[in-house]
Amino acid sequence: MGLVSIVFLWIHDQDYLKNPGSHRWLRLTRDMENALKQIVSFKESRLNASWLKFLLCVLLTCWLMIGSAIAWEFSMEGELVWKGRFVGQLGSRGFFGEYDFDRSSTGGNYASTNGWVGGKLNDLSSSSNAADQVMETNVLPQLRLSEAVRLRGEYRIGGWNDPVASSYTNSTMPGVQVAISEGQWTMWWFSAHTPWGIIVFGKRPFDFGCGLQYNGSEDLTSESLLLVAPYGPFRFGVGFYPWRQQPDNPFRQSQPNNSFPLSNNPTLGNPYYNPLDLNAILAVSPTVFFTYDAGPLSVGIMSEYFMYHRGPESQRLQTVREIFPTSDVVSTDGGAFVKYSNGRFFINAELDWLNRKTKYEPSQKGTFFGTPDRMNGTGSLFAPRYIEAWRWMVETGAMAGPAKVSLIYSWLPGPDRRKGVLIDRQPYFYGFGNYGLFAPYSLVMNFYYGAGLDLFNLNTDGYMNDASILALRLDYAVASNLNIFTSFFWADRASGHGYGWGFIKPASTGSRVQFLNLSTINAGTQEAPSIPDNNLGWEINAGTDWQLLDGWKV
Question: Are 314 and 327 in contact (CB under 8 A)?
Answer without folding.
Answer: no
